[in-house]
Every structure is written in structure tokens, then in C-alpha cells.
Amino acid sequence: MKFDITSTEKITHSSDIIILAIDDKNNLINGNGINEVDESLVKKSLKKDVLGNSEGDTNILNDSTGSRQYLLVRVSDLKSVNIKRLGKIFNKTFTHLSKLSFKTVQMCLCKFAGTEVAVEEVVKLYVRASLHNFYKINAVKSKKATQAVVKNIIHLNSKYLKEAKQGLKLGQAIGEGSNLTKDLGNLPPNYCTPTYLGSVAKKIAKDNKMKVKVLGKAEINKLKMGSFLSVARGSREEPKFIVLEHMKGNKSQKPIVLVGKGITFDAGGISLKPGLNMDEMKWDMGGAATVLGVMHTVGKLNLPLNIVALVPSCENLPDGLAVKPGDVVTSMSGQTIEILNTDAEGRLILCDALTYAERYKPDAVIDVATLTGACVIALGHEASAVYSNIDSLASELINAGEKANDRAWHMPLWDEYQPLLDSNFADMANIGGRAAGSITAACFLSRFATKYNWAHLDIAGTAWISGGKAKGSTGRPVNLLSEFLLSRLKSK
Ligand code: BES
Ligand code: MN
Ligand code: ZN
């Protein structure tokens, strides 16, 4: 999809669809000056209740000439519109449009300037919503769905052009990053292997002049990542440890390290999962996909920050060589772990990556993981869980999530939960029992993140939609993390 921002308030390009915002008194919000719009036709039809009264309700109206259509969208009170409402309005608009077939769409956003939301944000939300809703799952279909919209034109008063262009740039980079994350998640697990994730990291590095290393089994062994390797033992796919470095900040600036769980299929190992919906465990690399999506965004924007992505990646399968309940393994940190349940494998691969992260003397380390079913029970599919050893970092992430319409919620990481991980035989067990399952998983990780500021995002409930027509990756929390990095940039 190509985007264009034009300074004229008049829509003069020939277009298939013009988006018209309608207020709660049935007035045309962005009609003024659009000379192609047949206002009397629109007004006449609105009298016939063609549009629902809830914000974001949409309907298609045919122009009398038959050459053009209007997409009406309800916007209640424009002056008080905020990021959350605007996100919903644009999402509903483009959900509707994604079901139609046409070449050009345009919208005048003039009247959206001067509201509570800055023009840059308005355009960013518009572009993000377009890319998000026009996303198609295509990779392994013999008949590919074609892109419905070729051109998407935004009209704004010329004095807002600079801000608008910046919004477009950000929206495009973030939207593309999030769609890359969806692509990786939606790819079947026989395609999306640890080796494949490594090749994607190499491509991102090449396209954006980043440094990349994809370590294989022998090199991972040399690093003494005994915990990570114990999970990989049950699979014939070679594990990979991906290191992707975007060092475009000041030399003295400490890097932000992003760590993504890259289990490309989680059958549970010897503690085998039940069969129902097991296919969904192909999304257990959602953290890795997020981190790679964010690196794409960061690269496209060439952010002057130092950012490192680490991805431990392997499969978790049952096998004669697989790790067993009762086995004790030694992590890269030297701490020993009694594996009581081989299905709690995410923490086992992440802990070694967290130890590896120490070498960067990082400003902050943020890991992202589809870590626990318990997180889905606690927060459902609305919010990602945030844990941190420093409250200010948790707040930063939560604020970024609010700004990005990609919400997260602060969970407790109190010392009182730590004894649930006590083991008779090793330094710790890899599970803490049924109670507080998402919290004890975070407690486990915290023991490997003692040397720096750290946050953990449990995205088990937010990374994909299970079942039904919408089944698939959501691309979350790329929006949250991109916004977090942009806010870091502003504070520099
Ligand atoms: N990948 C799963 C977590 C998961 C479950 C994500 C359901 C999304 C939906 C993780 O590896 C896992 O299996 N966790 C176990 C931990 C338990 C054995 C302590 C779980 O949540 O059941
Ligand atoms: Mn598991
Ligand atoms: Zn898992």
C-alpha cells in the first residue's frame, strides 16, 4: 500500500472511496472543501438512518455517478477525541474497507488537527490502522490474496504537513514491523524453524546495516548455556542463538537489550501437552517475532539508539534424548535448576539469554515471552503482563502501551513468592505450582536478571487470537515496544 499526504484541502484525485466522518448530529465533519463529495446525497441518506449511532460504526454509500463510494464513519465528539477512541475509529474504518475491493482510498484529516491528539499521532494511528487491517496471511496459500488498496491518500492543511509526514514515517515503520511479527507467527512450524528465524535476523541486519550473529549448537555449548540446551535436546532441529545489534546511538550510551522467547513449537516435551489446540504452540516464538519486528521498525527509522536483540530459539519436543522431569541442569550463570516440568521451557531458554545480556552492561533488558497459560487466566487477551525489578521501568512500558493502544498491566514480583521455587536437590525448581503461575515464572527469570534494570512482558494472552475467523498473530506488543523506544529517544 502506498501512502500519500497532500496539502490541499480539496480532494481532486479521482478516487474509488472517500472516507467521511459523521458527527452524532449527522453533520459531515470532513466534508468542507472536498469538491468531489456530493454533500446533499450524503445528508439525504443520513436522514434515513444509514449509519449506526455508536462511535466507529461504518456504512458504505454509493455515489449517484456510480464511479465512487463513500465510507461513512461515526465520530461522536471530535473535540474530545483521544488516542484510544481514534484508534478504534480508524480500526473499524479499515476493517470495513479491507472487505471491499478498490484501488484508491482517501480521507481529509483537516478537522482532526487541533483536537486533543497531535497531528503526528492522528496520522500515525491512521497509517497503523490501514496496515494492520489490510494485512493478509499469504505465505503458504497456493492462491495469494491480492492487495485491495493500492493508494491511500491523506489530506491535511499545509501548515501541518511536516508533522503529518513524520506521523506517516512512524506509522509505516511500526505497521510494517508489526506485520512482520504477524508473518513470522502465522508461518507453520515446519517453515518457521530456529534456522529460519536466524535467516530473518540476517536479512534485517543486511537491509539496515546492523551486526548479526546466529550461533549454532557448538557455539551455544561453548557459552555453557546448559539450561537452553536441555530444552533443545528433544528436537532434531538445531537450536540457534540470535544476536542482532543496532548500534546507532552514542558510543557512551548504554544499550537497551530486547530478549525474545523463540520456541518455534512447544509440544511440552516429556511433560507432553494435551492434543486439543496444540497447533497454537507454533506461536510460542511470539516473543522472538516481536523482537525481530521491533528491530525492523528501529532499522527503518534508523533510530539513534543502541539496541540489541537476543533470541534463544529451539523446539520443545518429546524424544528419547529429551530432558526428563527430575533432571538437574546447570545454567550459564552457574545456578542449577531442577526441571520438574519440561513444559515450563520458556524460562529455561530465557535465563541463559539474560545471563548473556550482562556483557552489554545494559541500560535496561526487556524480555518478551509467551510464557504462561496462567497469564491468560489472570489478564485474558486485553493486557500483556509487566514485571520489573524497577518500578520506573514498568511505568515507562505501561505508559508506552497506553499511548500505542497496546496495553500492559503491572504485576507483583514480591519476594514472598520466591520460596515457591525452592528445590530439595538444586538451587531452584523450574516451576512453582499452580498458584500465581505467571508470577512465579517471572520470579524464576528475576534470579538471572540481578545485574541490571530488567522488565519481563508475559504476552501469552496478547500475541495471538485463538480459534475462529480471526485466528492468527496480533503483532503485539510491537506497538508498545516501538512507542517505548521512541519515548527513550525523546528523553535523550
Ligand atoms: N508456551 C506455554 C505457555 C502458554 C500456554 C502460552 C497457553 C499461551 C497459551 C509455556 O511454555 C507453558 O507450557 N507453560 C506452562 C507452565 C507450567 C508447566 C508451569 C503452562 O502455562 O501451563
Ligand atoms: Mn511449554
Ligand atoms: Zn512455551
UniProtKB/TrEMBL annotation:
Amino acids binding Mn(2+) 1: D266, D343, E345
Location, primary (coarse class): cytoplasm
Record's subcellular location: Cytoplasm
Ranges where the Cytosol aminopeptidase domain occurs: 341-348
Binding-site list for Mn(2+) 2: K261, D266, D284, E345
Cleaved signal peptide residues: none
Superkingdom in the source lineage: Bacteria
A Pfam family: Peptidase_M17
Reaction equation(s) it catalyzes: Release of an N-terminal amino acid, preferentially leucine, but not glutamic or aspartic acids; Release of an N-terminal amino acid, Xaa-|-Yaa-, in which Xaa is preferably Leu, but may be other amino acids including Pro although not Arg or Lys, and Yaa may be Pro. Amino acid amides and methyl esters are also readily hydrolyzed, but rates on arylamides are exceedingly low
InterPro entries per the UniProt record, alphabetical: Leucine_aapep/pepB (IPR011356), Macro_dom-like (IPR043472), Peptidase_M17_C (IPR000819), Peptidase_M17_leu_NH2_pept (IPR023042)
GO-annotated molecular function: manganese ion binding; metalloaminopeptidase activity
One GO CC annotation: cytoplasm
GO biological process: proteolysis
Cofactor: Mn(2+)
Top EC class, one word: hydrolase
Cofactor binding, note field: Binds 2 manganese ions per subunit.
Keywords of this entry: Aminopeptidase, Cytoplasm, Hydrolase, Manganese, Metal-binding, Protease
Active site residues according to the UniProt entry: K273, R347
Documented EC number(s): 3.4.11.1, 3.4.11.10
Family label: Belongs to the peptidase M17 family.
Role: Presumably involved in the processing and regular turnover of intracellular proteins. Catalyzes the removal of unsubstituted N-terminal amino acids from various peptides.
NCBIfam families (UniProt xref): PRK00913.1-4 (NF002074)
PANTHER family associated with the record: CYTOSOL AMINOPEPTIDASE, LEUCINE AMINOPEPTIDASE-RELATED
Name listed for the protein in its UniProt record: Probable cytosol aminopeptidase
Gene that this polypeptide is encoded by: pepA_2
